[in-house]
Design a protein that fits this description.
Blueprint: E1 2-7, E2 11-18, E3 21-29, H1 32-42, E4 50-55, H2 58-72, E5 77-78, E6 88-89, H3 99-112, E7 116-121, E8 124-130, E9 135-143, H4 145-154, H5 175-202, E10 207-211, H6 215-218, E11 225-228, H7 232-244
Parallel strand pairs: 1-4, 4-5, 6-9, 7-10, 10-11
Antiparallel strand pairs: 1-2, 2-3, 7-8, 8-9
Helix pairs in contact: 3-7
């Protein structure tokens, strides 16, 4: 069994792979005093042969490394542009590229074997484009859905935080519906525009795959997105582990 860990700004996603079969997965929030307990509960198995971590939160990475060294007697593989990911980077400074974005495109290539645009609806909304030969072209980063909701309520005196859902009409009939429409349909239109622009500028066909916490709600309303793959990053981390170990 191989353990994979995707450490994000909001949540930590864990998976246990038997070969390429995901046997177990869990997600828990980034709450420092609960992280150690989450590790112990999830990875309490004597069958663990190795592990890999993709992290965008450096202060938490060392805690996970220490856990695996102490409890499993091995050092986990740390995903970065410096190890073998079967990618060629057209990125000015690949070392600044987030490990989660690397995992997403590696997972997309391994799973679908086509030119891929991965749309990750996480804390930030990101798009990453990669060719089927492993050429990573680059991407786009915008504030995520949750961040947009938070900022709108924090920076305005009269607007309260609302629960995001798809409103019945694009024209809201209450302040709550207006905010929901702006965030929901604004994201839909933005992502559709980005995908269209990428395809036009690159002059290539891409399979568009969505992932991330908000992706299940939003991606069905973006016709350019053909797949929703919630475990894409975990699968990408596994593949990078296999390429290097």
């Amino acid at each position: 069994m191989v353990g994979v860990v995707d450490i994000g700004n909001t949540n930590i996603h864990c998976g246990l792979y038997d070969g390429e079969v995901l046997r177990k997965k869990n997600t828990f929030p980034v709450v420092p005093h609960r992280i150690t307990d989450g590790m112990k509960l999830f990875f309490a198995t004597k069958e663990l042969n190795g592990a890999a971590i993709a992290s965008v939160v450096p202060r938490l990475t060392d805690r996970w490394i220490t856990y695996f060294k102490k409890n499993c007697n091995f050092s986990p593989l740390i995903v970065s542009s410096k190890i073998d990911s079967h990618l060629t980077f057209r990125y000015y400074n690949p070392e600044t590229l987030g490990a989660d974005r690397i995992a997403n495109v590696v997972g997309g290539l391994a799973r679908y074997k086509r030119n891929v645009v991965v749309v990750d609806f996480g804390t930030a909304t990101t798009l990453d484009a990669v060719l089927k030969d492993g050429t990573y072209l680059g991407g786009i980063i915008t504030p995520g859905v949750g961040i947009s909701l938070d900022v709108l309520s924090e920076k305005t005196a009269l607007l309260k935080r609302v629960r995001l859902k798809r409103p019945e009409s694009i024209i809201g009939r209450s302040t709550e519906e207006c905010i929901q429409s702006g965030i929901f349909y604004g994201t839909v239109v933005m992502i559709r525009g980005f995908i269209h622009k990428i395809k036009k500028d690159m002059r290539k066909k891409f399979l568009c795959v969505a992932t991330g916490g908000w992706g299940k709600m939003i991606s069905p309303h973006i016709e350019e997105i053909r797949e929703f793959d919630p475990d894409l990053a975990l699968f990408g981390i596994l593949k990078i582990y296999q390429y290097n170990v």
